[in-house]
Structures are given as C-alpha cells and as structure tokens.
Design a protein that fits this description.
4 helices; two-stranded antiparallel sheet; 255 residues; nine-stranded mixed beta sheet; alpha+beta; 18% helix; disordered C terminus
Length: 255
C-alpha cells in the first residue's frame, strides 16, 4: 500500500477522483441543458436523492476504531466488521465500485490500508457532546443559493460525519447522494472535529472553465471552510482542471 494513503487529504483526493472518473460519467446520459434529470425527465431538486449517483460515508483512523465504535454502540452490527486489504488507490476505487449497491458506511484503517463495510450506524451518536450545526456546516451546504441552513434538510449520514470527529480522533468523508446546485450531483466532503473542512462539487458552466470533463462544460469547485465568528463559512475556493493535480489542497488549507 502506498504510504501516502494514510494521509487524510489523500483520502479526500481519492474520493474526488472517484467522483470525477466513475460517478460523473454514468450520469451524463441523463443531462439536458446543464441539469441531470430523473427517470421522469425532471431535474433533481437540491437536497433530494439523486438516484443515478453513488453515496459514500467513510470514517478514517487507525486500527482500533471499529472495536471502539461497537463498544460505544455507534456501530450497531451484530458481527465485527470484516476488513479487506487494499493494494493501491485503484483498489480503493474498485472496492467502492464493487460495493456500490450496499447501504451503510465504510471504516478505513488508513495506516494499514484496510477497509470494512458497516451496515448499521447509530444515527444520533454523542448528542450531549454535539456542537450546533451552524458551527459545523455553512449555510449553503444543502442548497447552493441558501442564505440560512435548514437543519431539517441535513441528512443522517451528514450528521454522523459531522459528529463522530468530535467524539473520536477520526476524520469523516462523504460523497453525498443528495443533489446539489443546478447540475444536481452531490458533494464530496471532509469533516474534522471543527466541522466541514473542505468540499468538492460539480457546476455546469458553458461560458468559462477550466473543465473536469473533456467533452462537457462541467467545472469542479474545491472549497475550504472554517469558523467565521460563530458560523461556519467558506474561506477560499478554486476550480480544478485536467489533469487533476497531485494535491487538491490550497496553500492555506485549514487543518
């Protein structure tokens, strides 16, 4: 396993690459006028599930997380998770593709390059230790033009991703299945104990690139977040371009 695989920023990069190379192409046949359409020919509503897209929730740490989460009744599976060895980053993508039909989440032992599927998570862990969502998520997390965060639209997987890093020395990653922006494809996220640290989403822009797809005017937007006064907010953003750079992070990336 590549030693760099143990770095959380690299995990985020791998998920962005997966989203660009495997999640995006299979949705383009449903795109009309810059929007992904459902099976009735209607654009996906922001915050609602995009059925063409694969959703991923991944919790990354060292070797002992799974047993701790079972002891604390955060993982509700009856059996211990079965870990598989990942050979390289391509193996990581292949694993997600093979298991795309399974509900639940994944635990990654990044130090050892091992991954396991978890069927059931406690969707309300650590409620007594939880920071308010305004300190963890920006106002436009669910809907791109929102001026306030409607907590009713924040899904259970996002709540797990936001809360677990506050309780354990972990980071949480998602590929959200919920539609985002006018295009209607979900966001890639990375959560630390301080909330949403960075995200990546697609945007249709027929006027200006750079573009992340060779044949369609689709932009990839990478954002950095942090706490501004008492609210979580965007600190910086940039557009990615092909070929995807070796490092996706900005020089002043929040820790």
């Amino acid at each position: 396993m590549d030693p760099s695989f143990s770095q959380e920023a690299t995990i985020f990069e791998l998920l962005v690459r997966y989203h660009i190379e495997r999640n995006l192409p299979k949705q383009l046949e449903y795109m009309r006028d810059g929007r992904i359409l459902d099976d009735r020919g209607r654009p996906f509503i922001q915050g609602r599930e995009n059925k063409w897209s694969q959703g991923v929730l991944l919790i990354a740490d060292g070797a002992t997380l799974a047993s701790r989460l079972m002891e604390d009744h955060v993982i509700l599976d009856e059996e211990d998770p079965e870990f598989e060895q990942l050979s390289d980053p391509a193996g990581f993508s292949d694993y997600l593709t093979t298991n795309r039909w399974r509900d639940g989440a994944y635990i990654l032992n990044a130090d050892g390059g091992k991954i396991a599927h978890v069927s059931q998570f406690n969707n309300n862990p650590g409620s007594e230790r939880r920071k308010p969502l305004r300190e963890l998520l920006p106002v436009d997390f669910v809907q791109s033009a929102a001026t306030y965060l409607d907590r009713r639209l924040v899904g259970t997987r996002t709540r797990v991703a936001a809360v677990l890093p506050q309780m354990y020395p972990v980071e949480a990653f998602q590929i959200k299945q919920s539609a985002y922006g006018e295009l209607g494809i979900g966001v890639v996220t990375r959560f630390t104990k301080d909330g949403l640290a960075e995200s990546f989403h697609f945007q249709y822009d027929a006027v200006q690139g750079p573009y992340v797809h060779a044949d369609h005017p689709i932009v990839g937007v990478h954002r950095i977040y942090g706490l501004v006064n008492t609210h979580h907010a965007k600190l910086d953003e940039r557009r990615l371009e092909l070929p995807i750079p070796a490092a996706l992070t900005l020089p002043d990336r929040a820790a």
